[in-house]
Amino acid sequence: MAFVTTKEMFAKAYEGKYSIGAFNINNMEIIQGIVAACKKQNSAVILQVSKSALKYAHPLYLVKMVEAAVEETGLDIALHLDHGPDFETCKACIEAGFTSVMFDGSHYDYEENVAKTKEVVEYAHAHGVVVEAELGKLAGVEDDVNVDAANATYTDPDQAVDFVKRTGVDSLAIAIGTSHGAYKFKGEAKLDFARLEKITEKLEAEGIHNFPIVLHGASAVDQDAVAMCNENGGQIKGAKGMPLEMLRKASSMAVCKINMDTDIRLAMTAAIRKAFNDKPDAFDPRGYLGDARNYIEAMVEKKITEVLGSTDSMN
Description:
By secondary structure, the chain is an alpha/beta fold. The protein has a single domain (about 5-310), classed as Aldolase class I (TIM Barrel, Alpha-Beta Barrel). It is about 50% helix and about 15% strand. The protein has 12 helices and 11 strands. It has helices spanning about 5-15, 30-40, 50-55, 60-75, 85-95, 110-125, 155-165, 195-205, 225-230, 245-250, 260-280, 285-310, and strands at about 20-25, 45-50, 75-85, 100-105, 130-135, 140, 145, 170-175, 180, 215, 255-260. The strands form 2 sheets. An 8-stranded parallel barrel has the order 1-2-3-4-5-8-10-11, surrounded by 10 helices. Strands 7-6-9 form a 3-stranded mixed beta sheet, with no helix packed on it. β6 (about 140) and β7 (about 145) form a beta hairpin. The two termini are about 20 Å apart.
């Protein structure tokens, strides 16, 4: 069994008005928790790896663990590079067996982003791999991505159409109000659905039909997990994420992929903190990591049913 690309996943998601969850992975327990939830819900899934995760876990370990997940579950799983910083990282992941890569050139000026994205697209497509790119800048901090609010910019619809046509990219991450990290908003969350709709309409007008849009920085920052962290010695104060109903609405539009990393981190940390607090004498990693795996599974299942709508997307 092999990984799949996101092409068919996104085609079905667009038609069915749901999204595929893209969850960041760093170790075995995270992978197992995610795919166990997806198996229960009969849902396709994207397991994605940041540059920091590649450094932490090493590409070969990650590839082999995800291969094991495919073999064990029989699920459609795409292995995706999240926020690839350069051509070399994208190329290395393609050679390692990834079926999808994201090149993030959003920090370059527009023409340079186009040129660099096109270079990645040409190489990836020649190897049967699909490419996601980003246009616009999301605020927030996550791994190597750090953009302050003053430098965050929403995606321009006309520029989005030009970008897709000139690069040949397969999906596009846009900025419409989401944010990286656990501290997404000081006030009320707001997604610019009109901008999302306009981007889709302009793509359709240019003959680019059912084009998949991606939302980054879309963790809800689960308040139960935040509370569990804080009740067990954590100091995660004032963390706020995307409201579930906004994410669900985006899933019913052109958004076919929703990225969630912070929620996975919170679930793991909360469960481990609680395990140590409940049993201060515990030192068997299988105990506290097993608790973390179970909590991740429960959280991902909730995301599938309440946000993504991807139950039975394997059918």
